[in-house]
Amino acid sequence: MLPGRAAVDRMRLVAVPSLPANKGTGPGVITPDGCAVEFYAMLSAGPEPEIVHAACGRAPSTILELGAGTGRISSALATLGHFVVAVDESPEMLAHVRHAETVRARIEGLRLGRRFGVVLLPSYLINAPDAQLRDAFLQTCAQHVSPAGCVIIQQHSPAWFANAAVWERESNGMIMRLTDVQRPGPDLVSATAEYEAEGRTWTHSFTVMRLNEVDLCSSLLAAGLRFDRYLSSDQEWVCARPDAHRQPGRQGEAPR
Ligand SMILES: C[S@@+](CC[C@H](N)C(=O)[O-])C[C@H]1O[C@@H](n2cnc3c(N)ncnc32)[C@H](O)[C@@H]1O
Fold first, then answer.
1. Domains of the chain, CATH where assigned
2. Has residue 15 got a pLDDT over 70?
């Protein structure tokens, strides 16, 4: 049985040490959360668009991506036939987005007054150590998903947290490594990702928090969402749906 809301809130108050903010270094613009615009602009779409497309049943949908960056995922989804709105706080990131509507805004507090068949919260944003920020992200998801729609969340998998360690790999002429891996508290991992490409080097130092299933389900419920299923066997991709018992008032368009 899931613990009550008060119990969950008490658990969250337990000893989260004060943590340094995420930060990045390297050429070009670095976003407030430490991401390098020029590095993300170089990346190919990768597997993420197909995971979301499959979750949509490969039928055109309306999709809201929160923290869309350069549109690596959004632009690919638009090319697959979806109507996509890409949200990011960085105008320099959004300048790279193609084939999708863009909205410059912070995710927390975003209220577009429109609803979408799919709301996507990718890139491990849900692993932010700040519980209030995570709750605000989920509130935004709940406020923008249509009653029959779904929220797709990408989290670091339990195996990622268990095995986080220094590594280095080379792919497509790019060297990526994880360094400075530390565990500053229960369920916390801090590390620096380094990327080398075309003679340029970027770093991104971050801290992430592991969410166990009980915490995740409780946080979803508090936002008016319920856990539906994992979209990948490693539990990295989560599908949630509006909680039928806590349907918020409708605010706009229905999904296509
Ligand atoms: C790691 S990048 C990933 C971008 C894209 N989802 C991808 O996979 O290529 C994270 C993006 O989220 C944005 N971001 C992080 N926190 C945000 C917030 N609270 N509000 C709006 N954008 C945010 C950053 O500006 C950055 O562009």
1. 5-12+42-157+211-243 (3.40.50.150)
2. no
